[in-house]
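So, can you check?
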Amino acid sequence: MFGSEAVTGRTILVVLEPGDGVLEALVQACLRFGVTDGYVPVFLGAFRELTLIGAGEPPADEDEPMPESITVRNCEGQGTATVARGSDGPLVHLHASVGAKGDSARAHSGHVLSGVVQYPTEVVLVELLSPALERQPNARARGLATLTFPNE
């Protein structure tokens, strides 16, 4: 376990518009407002589709990182994210839980790979002044890139 006291800066309200790519629009919001480190405590809306790491059936080994993805169409839900520094700009790490409208709101949850907004999606973006955030491969997490505080 490790941790750091967070110092917050601005709170920015963002609305993703129909047709926006979810991750692309979140990155654009970070760039527009100069947010290099932060988190998203509120992410809620409706999506034409959202692709998550996950599967329609249970995996053979539940301890392994999921090698598959699932696309949920015409869904609504909520999520949360962190924003870390990447070599090419902000890296948004978003997890969401969404229910498919055409499947009695059957829910799927996981790491978001991509998505397209269907109806305006409400986002609250909180800037972190410190610590700086990065994602680095973590051998203890089977090589997955996990959150680090490089200056701590």
Summary: The domain at 9-148 is CATH 3.30.1330.80 (60s Ribosomal Protein L30; Chain: A;). The two ends are 13 Å apart (CA to CA).
